[in-house]
Amino acid sequence: MEIRLEAPDADEVADKIGGLRAPANPFTFWIDELRPENKARLSPVVADLLAGYASLAQSMKTITGAVEGDLSVSEHLILRGMVTGIITVKQDGSLDLHGMCGKSLIVNAGGKATVHGMVNEDVTNRGGDVSVFGMVVGSIDTQSGETHIAPSAVVQNKRSSLGK
After folding, report:
1. What's the pLDDT at 44?
2. pLDDT of residue 27
3. Would you give the DSSP letter of residue 128?
4. What secondary structure does DSSP assign to 93-127, as a single string?
5. DSSP of 9-70, one letter per residue?
6. How far apart are CA 57 and CA 69, in angstroms?
7. Would you tell me how many other CB atoms lie within 10 Å of the CB of residue 11?
8. Which of 36, 38, 156, 162 has a CB 3.0–4.6 Å from the CB of 18, allowing a cystine?
């Protein structure tokens, strides 16, 4: 799980907080653990926030490689890789797409999808919650549910001028 902190000296912040590793990018930290002895150094709000992110990160599955064929999502999933087929998000499933969907993305009632990466065909919302910040080569069809298209999104090779 990444947490971005703006600090003049990332190594100093990581050392003071403890339980975090500072990578080459000074504004990104990975939560390993939030050690009890360091929790007291943080404000209660920040400590709870970091603990919540650590818990969420442990409950989310992440795919970084290639998946051949279709993929059905019924849990929390972060996709940083590629799926060659259709991705279907089922009820209670959530997809955070940073990679590529080779065909279409379908979000069923009660599902949630956030597209930061690319969908090579269409996005169909059948009653879920869809947010598009990345690129959709095809169209976006909202049959029901909520669909948000960010101004920075590219749909059918056109930048969105207004979020929907």
Report:
1. 58
2. 38
3. E
4. -EEEE-SEESS-EEEETT-EEEESSEESS-EEEEE
5. -HHHHHHHH-SEE--SSTTEEEES---HHHHTTS-HHHHHHHHHHHHHHHHSEEE-SEE-S-
6. 26
7. 10
8. 38
